[in-house]
Records
---
Amino acid sequence: VSVITLTTDFGTGSSYGAAMKGVILTINPAVTVIDITHDIRPQDVRHGALILEEVTDRFPPDTIHVAVVDPGVGTDRAIVFVQIGRQRYLAPDNGLLSRLTCRQPPSQVIQLTEPAYWLEPVSETFHGRDILAPAAAWLSLGLRPERLGTPRQRLVDLDWPVPRCQPGSVEGQVLTIDSFGNLITNITVDLLGDVPRDERTRIAIGDRQITGIGRTYGTRPEGTLIALVGSSGRLEVAVVGGNAAATLHVGGGTPVSLTTTLIA
Amino acid sequence: VSVITLTTDFGTGSSYGAAMKGVILTINPAVTVIDITHDIRPQDVRHGALILEEVTDRFPPDTIHVAVVDPGVGTDRAIVFVQIGRQRYLAPDNGLLSRLTCRQPPSQVIQLTEPAYWLEPVSETFHGRDILAPAAAWLSLGLRPERLGTPRQRLVDLDWPVPRCQPGSVEGQVLTIDSFGNLITNITVDLLGDVPRDERTRIAIGDRQITGIGRTYGTRPEGTLIALVGSSGRLEVAVVGGNAAATLHVGGGTPVSLTTTLIA
Amino acid sequence: VSVITLTTDFGTGSSYGAAMKGVILTINPAVTVIDITHDIRPQDVRHGALILEEVTDRFPPDTIHVAVVDPGVGTDRAIVFVQIGRQRYLAPDNGLLSRLTCRQPPSQVIQLTEPAYWLEPVSETFHGRDILAPAAAWLSLGLRPERLGTPRQRLVDLDWPVPRCQPGSVEGQVLTIDSFGNLITNITVDLLGDVPRDERTRIAIGDRQITGIGRTYGTRPEGTLIALVGSSGRLEVAVVGGNAAATLHVGGGTPVSLTTTLIA
């Protein structure tokens, strides 16, 4: 049984994701198609990249992940097949895969240039349906990726801000906002290894200050602003039972600083 | 062919539901995974319980329903397997299954304590992915439920307000709001057996009064406030072509009273 | 492998689509059920008709498309099976299929009158679950459509406004709005065959004027109001990286005129 996933910014109200499924099932009726989400913020490549990083390695080996967040559709940006570990990706080459490739270098990159595996005529605004979906379906039937086009050496990168660490402090920022309004930061759990989780550590964001890093949503009263390490291994700022982004009026790029007082 | 369903408050924009599907398909690639909804109001256990009651008995026998509305994740609340009739459930023990168990007592309750069937390491904020999803997948492969942990006698209950009935009147309340803005009440069709559906019966909610219980949405002009028995067998208050919750500014807990004038 | 699709206005937050899937899988556990969308604007038959036209011919031959946008549920409107080309449809007879049938006349129309293939008792407000879903499941198992009821000659039509064309101008209107806020018009690409795409052509909508027909979203700066031919082959008005419907405060029925100055 082979699996194809879809990650797009089409919205659940559009028929575009369904068009891709129709094309896929016409070529390979036996494949399992799974929606990761169609609610990537429109044309927000960074949001798409974080979602792909978060979830795709949970899928069975050889799963084909199709990602369409594609503000450059119809321009000369490339479309690529990328093998990263045991997972396979098809996406526009615009940085969507940059979180994944900075964790693990790809073992194969192919630029899709072979129209024999496309739907004709190719729409200028919907390469997801006309190029990516049929390519995914053919791969799921066992087509070797090199048949899709020509090898490529480089992929487009995105600027991923790196937290600055000093003894007793980490300066990071908000990368994206999840569907609960939780603020997902670029401060990952590995940077927090020895940082005490109690009142010695304070997190500052906007004009608010949070004391300590909580272990879970369930341990504080409703409405409390908390910091915790979320399921994706990143420091998150959340409001218990509420929406942190709306409460704090902050978004991507907002600085988040963590300081630890070492009481002797 | 076995079926696993998902009912969560993750939102369609998050990748959390997809992470659960990835885990499930990695263990059992042949299972069919169906989304009931990921749009339970965040942390609204009561809303989740009503949705589970509404829909789960429509599924094939031995379907495994996984429900994650879990404000207590990471606290010491239990996670349970529950067999109710021919349907099987995996959920935090927080009342999510209380509508189902008050209709039909469970024939088996197991508290999940056996980490051999969990994903390691278990995240403190995402038991859906790390405990519930793999347990569901193993069950779908034929694992006997008693292998997941230890028998349990009681389940957490929720307070479900019961309508007060007197000759000629029923005093109930709004339990939840559906995606059309229809107000779903705790007045079920069995309480309405002999009540006339015509102008002799009036429904009061907020400062509005509705005359008669309609048979369907299609019989009144747009914008009319109506009362009818919905597909889940509950008295609902709706606006034809509109949103009753927004129009009346009411929500869960709002009293709804039904009075019948017996004209001699 | 057979495929059933669902197109409804239930909303992703309701359990109604899931109830239909439960009914379908109980009758035919091996069928693949695909959501086209559950976010048709509530009771907007015209919106549903355009989505069905856009996407259903992308599916494998003999796919069964179930559409439920049904403001007349419970009245005496018919429910029909319709064969159009290699695709099969089940829907209330209210114009939902009128875009499809005006492109290609149906080869078979059956009114569903045979309760042997319905779920008993039939709810007065949810024919999707109790009539359409089981009928689709039985068809997917090979039941011949004529077993579902009696032949029918006519289908309900909708008024689809036709653009008025004169030398140098086309007068059309907005038909619907997609999930990006793009305004989808009734001006199709075949009407634009010889129209220059450059500054000689202007599009007027509301009090705004657009110069030229763009080729793609990616070629103009953020916030620019553009006109382009979308993936469904219709002239669309969009805002790059934004929402045209919200920006222009316009909706269905708004006039859109296209004029071409032939510079000698």
---
Amino acid sequence: MSNLLRDLREALSGVTVIAGEDVDQRYWSDWYRGHPTRPLALVRARSTDDVSAVMSFCNRHRLPVIVQGGLTGLCGGAEAEADAVILNLERMSGVEAIDLDAGTMTVLAGTPLETAQKAAEAKNLLLPLDLGARGSCTIGGNIATNAGGNNVIRYGMTRAMVLGLEAVLPDGTVLSNMNSLVKNNAGYDLKHLFIGSEGTLGVVTRAVLQLQPRPLFRAAALLATASFDALVGTLTAVRRGLPGSVDAFEVMWPEFYGIVTSEMPKERLPIAQVHPFYALVQVSGNDEAHLAASFDEILFACSERELVTDAVLAKSEREIEAFWAMRDAVAEFQRLVGPRTGFDVGLPLRKMEAFVEHARVGLASRFPGAITAFYGHLGDGNLHLMCHVPNVTTQPKKEIEDIVYSIVRDLRGSISAEHGIGKARTAYLNYSRTESEIALMQTLKRAIDPNNILNPGRVIAV
Amino acid sequence: MSNLLRDLREALSGVTVIAGEDVDQRYWSDWYRGHPTRPLALVRARSTDDVSAVMSFCNRHRLPVIVQGGLTGLCGGAEAEADAVILNLERMSGVEAIDLDAGTMTVLAGTPLETAQKAAEAKNLLLPLDLGARGSCTIGGNIATNAGGNNVIRYGMTRAMVLGLEAVLPDGTVLSNMNSLVKNNAGYDLKHLFIGSEGTLGVVTRAVLQLQPRPLFRAAALLATASFDALVGTLTAVRRGLPGSVDAFEVMWPEFYGIVTSEMPKERLPIAQVHPFYALVQVSGNDEAHLAASFDEILFACSERELVTDAVLAKSEREIEAFWAMRDAVAEFQRLVGPRTGFDVGLPLRKMEAFVEHARVGLASRFPGAITAFYGHLGDGNLHLMCHVPNVTTQPKKEIEDIVYSIVRDLRGSISAEHGIGKARTAYLNYSRTESEIALMQTLKRAIDPNNILNPGRVIAV
């Protein structure tokens, strides 16, 4: 094995290759922390050529490669393996160009999302991808996992923002698909192979992203409804009243609202009473007066129609930030409640209520006293669930997952709306995808990575 | 060969199989009419099972299959071959379901676009795909070619509207990928393999489409500018002023405007004077007063800034229709001018002017007296060009294409923004795509269609 490392170092002259025993524990796993593992070696690529050299060497020697971006993944896709080389892209960071006419950005894969967001902002443009991990996650990881986040209802997932990309194939071939045209039907649109396939078909090294005009003003409200129907009715009213201007419609069930506000003094709570549903709604646009008046009017009409039973309009940017801080306090769940098993499921709007009910009952009857907290992106059909079972030394993750994913399967939902499959969910992939779909995924994987060296064991078994 | 036909009929009991000598000439080619050819046979599938049986039989017998939708393609993708079976999907027509909550439509591949549009409209929803061939082209063909059209600037290409689909693979496997969720990251997003690959990887048989709320009011103007910069400035102003509300920004160069208005009496022309650029701009929304006032204001500001030199606002729906009729009169080019060689190129905004200039000069110097007419979708970077060379018995298509495509290549544009490659443009594919991209397309084709029986010779040579 030490010969292999020596040969790797030789093949990659000038590139940092850290032997397994010297690899910092930070690189042993992503945020999922399934089985943090010391890898064979860690390579810190500086360029596409470095990535190509690594892949070419590892393909020749049948060495597994695990690609790492910002390590914020939630399903173990970037977790190290004892026999694998970690290909880390953190050094490939930087915004290479912003084209003001076209509103596009050319960016390296290792660039943190927040860095790219700020570069767009500095040119008065918007990179509309946004998620809690923005400070750490990288553009390459966002693309590989087709990241979702808070603004999908308005701008779509990462896939919708990628015009072109460069990727290194498992055999080291550099695939330049740096399209910057909005319309290009000259042959297969290859970028889609690499978006959302979690690094199993190629290593994304740079990309051309479509930016958007930055809306000048935003308005937000926290509201409560008495029923799920009323919640859906409110979403429809906001969408119809301000088409194309709804940034977010985040729903919180009362357990979730209770947990994230548990450390706030009661008199500082925007809505102190307990309601069946809470929603954080944000709209934005360029015509401040029209935006504010329309938003007011829509919410007022929703109250009149008894859809909305309580509502607080943010009176300042600071109050909007405070609403979001509450929603983002989900990151504190572990501290506030305890270790959790998390879910990210996709469901048709009309099946969400049934899902919540079945999951609540199913988990409570199997694990009396279990704490379940539901929240999600209503307009996208995306629900998150956190479950904590009290008084156990280890959370019964597998049993909890079996219960929840069986409900998802029976409701014909998706076991992963935005987080992906990684290593954590491969066993459940057939709950959401047919046999012929999985067979076609395997055909693609075998055709592009015949030696199964790139992120092996992720997404699908080959 | 007659044995093969007998066996095919036997394998497809109950399905209409028409022998080559009885095949109506309508099925010999699409609108491209490269080399209309009598096929071996024509099969009129009624169901996905029929399609599966045809593919399975033809795969076993290594019989080429050409798929036909509405036959409106402009690059020979659906043209028959003497040794091939035509798989026609016209009988697989119908909207199966519209889900009002999710705003989705489930539709069979052979459904004409206009039928699907009207079904959406009847439910007060919008299927935002629209193109001149709407009455004949089918949803399956729209998906296979990733059709563009008039509203791409606002709603994207067909790809952006497809949530899920069902496709039959070359070996007859039915791939059900009928996703209806906005967010679904459970494994590879396989639908993208079939969207825009022009039927070379599978036969699309049905789909789930995302519909949009139908805007209640629209406004349109025909305007003229003195320079390309002023045109771009106007586009930017309209987009900023009414973000998310711009349906179309169609630009016409003066030759084009002259041809499409040549049969109108001068006093009825909306703009009678000759200008360097004309544009048809349409916006729409739900707040009529706000829409009209904003649009007025934006156009007035553009005049004040001397971006717009002449403008006519449509005063009624009828006038809007009249503007569009002018733009759509491009279909009359052949009658008004003569046989033409047509182009559909994609270019960065800032290279459009250079393209027009180089193409005009290049064609005029090689073919004195050549008539060239440019028009296109400015916001999408998509230009069309018609060229007619007078006083020749046959249009020198190949030479014209060599001249135009070389300019596109040198400007790093796309040889096909929306029409696709088909049979007509395979020789130029490498003008817009790299060697490694074409190699990867071939890898995909070989993996999914190892016997090369499905639409062979389309898009890429294998």
